[in-house]
């Protein structure tokens, strides 16, 4: 549970009233001497109450505008009266720190000397109680995910595992990735976008088995529609066949096609993770 005071101007109430079940929430607090966004949650309920909350140590009656959150990242068991919320659950988790939020992500309120018990609203329509753009929210969430997603490589990855790997590289790169992106009456496996609202500039299709030609046709169509870079991710065994199709049937766009094996994609992912870990260690974004 989380709660907010009723202030004299009614600002907290106006913000709290905008919250609905299912809404995403970034949770900011201090742990281990580090302030920042430590969790990604979902609103599961909200209500107003002056009843005391047993496991709120300080001022149990002073935060009547209450919400209940479910942890999405990291995945934690639900706190209760017998098992209250413990900051130790976040040991080893990598937050997006306060100074990064203020500088790299544009949360100007965090440039102030002291923090406040605040509720920030992100949305596409600025003004009123909406303080920051939703693209800023997405950028912070993508950074939190990129820092804390741990992938254990499988010796024979499935189509979905390779697709998810491309998506996670996109998160690390800050490329606004989307899985299963619609392309007219079909879907492409992953796209990367320069901004959350822009058309894809890179389109990925994973082809480990099945109809290789159909996968290349889909990538060619994505190039025609969005002028995006088509990338085929395939196996070593299929590489030669793919290059024959590209230099033959698709020769007019041969120069823009990219083909990469699953093995090379894994190497790229591991290198990106190492760079990201070094950036986090040095306090860089």
Topology at a glance:
Blueprint: E1 2-4, H1 11-18, E2 24-31, E3 34-48, E4 65-73, E5 96-97, H2 98-103, E6 121-123, E7 130-133, H3 134-148, H4 159-173, E8 178-183, E9 186-193, E10 200-207, H5 212-226, E11 229-234, H6 236-247, E12 258-261, H7 262-282
Parallel strand pairs: 6-7, 10-11, 11-12
Antiparallel strand pairs: 1-4, 2-3, 3-4, 3-5, 8-9, 9-10
Number of helices: 7
| Quantity of strands, as a count | 12
Order of helices and strands: EHEEEEHEEHHEEEHEHEH
* Rounded Rg: 23 Å
Main sheet specs: 5 strands, antiparallel
Query: What characteristic shape results from the CA principal axes?
Result: elongated
What is the terminal separation in angstroms? 31 Å
Mean pLDDT: 88
Helix/strand/pairing category: alpha/beta
What does this structure look like?
By secondary structure, the chain is α/β, with parallel strands linked by helices. It has two domains: 2-148, no CATH class; 159-269, 3-Layer(aba) Sandwich (Trna Endonuclease, Chain: A, domain 1). Helix content is 32%, strand content 27%. The strands form three sheets. Strands 1, 2, 3, 4 and 5 form a five-stranded antiparallel beta sheet that branches. A hairpin with a 2-residue loop joins β2 and β3. The longest helix is centred in the C-terminal third of the chain and has 21 residues, at 262-282. The protein starts with a strand and ends with a helix.
């Amino acid at each position: 549970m989380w709660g907010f005071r009723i202030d004299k101007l009614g600002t907290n109430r106006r913000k709290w009233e905008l919250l609905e079940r299912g809404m995403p929430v970034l949770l900011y607090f201090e742990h281990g001497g580090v302030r920042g966004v430590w969790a990604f949650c979902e609103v599961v309920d909200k209500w107003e109450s002056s009843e005391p909350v047993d496991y709120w140590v300080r001022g149990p009656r002073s935060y009547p505008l209450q919400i209940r959150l479910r942890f999405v990242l990291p995945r934690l068991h639900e706190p209760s009266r017998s098992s209250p919320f413990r900051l130790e659950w976040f040991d080893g988790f990598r937050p997006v720190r306060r100074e990064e939020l203020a500088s790299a992500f544009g949360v100007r309120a965090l440039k102030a000397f002291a923090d406040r018990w605040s509720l920030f609203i992100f949305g596409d329509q600025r003004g009123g109680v909406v303080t920051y753009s939703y693209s800023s929210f997405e950028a912070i969430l993508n950074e939190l995910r990129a820092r804390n997603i741990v992938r254990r490589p499988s010796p024979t990855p499935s189509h979905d595992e390779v697709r998810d790997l491309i998506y996670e590289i996109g998160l690390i790169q800050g490329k606004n990735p989307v899985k299963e992106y619609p392309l007219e009456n079909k879907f492409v496996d992953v796209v990367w976008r320069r901004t959350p609202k822009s058309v894809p500039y890179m389109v990925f299709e994973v082809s480990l088995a099945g109809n290789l030609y159909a996968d290349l046709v889909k990538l060619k169509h994505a190039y025609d529609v969005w002028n995006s870079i088509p990338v085929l991710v395939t196996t070593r065994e299929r590489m030669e066949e793919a290059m024959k199709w590209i230099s033959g049937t698709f020769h007019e766009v041969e120069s823009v096609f990219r083909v990469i094996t699953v093995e090379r994609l894994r190497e790229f992912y591991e290198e990106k993770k190492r760079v990201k870990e070094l950036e986090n260690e040095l306090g860089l974004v």
